[in-house]
Each structure stands twice: as C-alpha cells, then as structure tokens.
Design brief:
This protein has about 240 residues and is mainly α. Helices cover about 65% and strands about 5% of the residues.
Length: about 240
C-alpha cells in the first residue's frame, strides 16, 4: 500500500519484509545453484549496505554544523525505516540461500565500522546531501530492477514481490529527495551538475572503495560506469526543467 506523508507529499510504501518472507526456507528455492553461489558476494554487499543506513543516519544527526529542514528530517526518518526493512529482508534471504543464521549475520555486520572522512566533501550541507542521496537512490532503483530476473528464477513468488517492493521504495526515496531539492534549494540547482560530476568522478576512480557508509556503495559489477553516468544525467535533466 502506498501513501503520502505531510503537506509536501513525501511518498512511502507500507510493507514488511519479515511478514512477506516469513515462510521462506531453503526447501522452496529452485534457482540454479551455480548462479546462486556466484551472486553470494552481491547479496552480501546489498544487505551490508542496507544495514549501513544506520551508520549514515547517526552520522547526519551527530553533525552539529548541519542546518537541516523539517522536510529533510522527515524524509530521512522515512528513508531509514525503509532501508532497515530492506536489510531485514536481505538478511533472511542471505540466511536461506547460504545457510548462515540471521543471528550470526547480524553479529558480523555489527562489528564493521564506517569511515565518512573520504566522502565528507560531498556531504557539506543539506543541498549536497540531498544530491548525494538522490544519486544513490536512483542508482539503487535501477540496480534492483536488474535483479528482477534473478529473483524470479529463485522460485517463491514472495521473492519476486520483495525485489519489486524494494525497487519501488528506492524510487520513492529518489523522488522525495528531488522534491525537497526543488522546494528548499531552488536557487542552488544550477550547482547540481558540478556536484554530481564530482560524485561520479569519485565513484569511477580506480581508488574508489566502499567504507560502510551506506552512501556511495557502488563498488560491485552491478554498478557499471554507464549506469552511474545515466544516474547523473537523469538528475541533471530533471532539475534543469525547474531552474
């Protein structure tokens, strides 16, 4: 079920990974075992990144230098609830596909520490943070769509539903970020191409690594440079219509 929050129309979807996947078990998986084994690092990466939304939220709320609008605070709270819902779903999926308990997975993920220092230049204020989130979420939307066929091949219909629900959430996050950019930061939209070009250069550099920050996590082959460039150009095209 979809619904709208607040007067500015932030979108979100009401669903539960735990409820949707409650009957998922190894016995109902029919996918190709070699394909499943090959995708193990990708499933782990996606799950880890969704878990790391916790790190990103804490980082933002601890930044005393940031002046965050009420709209942004509402947005980031809705976003975090969705990402943790995705994490719980991917934790269950990883457990079922690869025979590791959810408790052990949780323990392993909690032992990791984020490092925001290499990316703080892209997170200087609400404007640049929203651009970074928009770039991240539109890229995640398209990456999840790339996985529709894989999830469908695994057998249970709940997995096909799960991946499509997650993609819809990521698209809603992107749309919400764009909405606040237009509402609160209209005078600065002309700066967006330069900011996004810097983000693209960072993520396509040979030294790029992911440091458990949730944001800028595109370091697997799911995220081609063409996909990242497409994300940048899409955001610029949309924002330029409103300058």
């Amino acid at each position: 079920m979809s619904y709208i929050k607040t007067a500015i129309g932030l979108k979100c979807h009401d669903w539960s990974s735990v409820e949707l996947l409650k009957d998922l078990s190894p016995e109902v998986i029919i996918g190709n075992k070699e394909d499943i084994k090959y995708r193990q690092k990708h499933f782990w990466h996606d799950m880890s990144s969704e878990f790391d939304s916790k790190h990103f939220l804490i980082y933002l709320l601890k930044r005393k230098d940031l002046k965050l609008s009420d709209e942004f605070l509402e947005f980031v709270c809705l976003w975090h609830l969705d990402e943790q819902n995705h994490y719980r779903g991917l934790r269950k999926i990883n457990s079922v596909l690869y025979g590791q308990s959810e408790e052990l997975i949780e323990h392993q993920l909690k032992s990791r520490k984020p490092d925001f220092d290499p990316i703080e230049a892209f997170l200087t204020d609400e404007f640049t943070i929203l651009l970074s989130i928009a770039f991240d979420e539109i890229t995640s939307t398209r990456a999840y769509k790339q996985d529709f066929e894989l999830f469908d091949s695994l057998g249970p219909s709940c997995l096909s539903t799960w991946i499509r629900n997650a993609a819809k959430d990521e698209a809603a996050h992107y749309g919400n970020a764009i909405k606040i950019l237009k509402l609160r930061h209209q005078p600065r939209l002309k700066e967006a191409p330069a900011v996004l070009e810097s983000i693209l250069a960072h993520e396509t550099s040979q030294t790029f690594t992911y440091n458990n920050t949730f944001i800028f996590d595109h370091d697997t082959d799911d995220f081609s440079h063409d996909l990242l460039r497409h994300s940048k150009s899409t955001i610029i095209d949309i924002l330029e219509r409103h300058q």
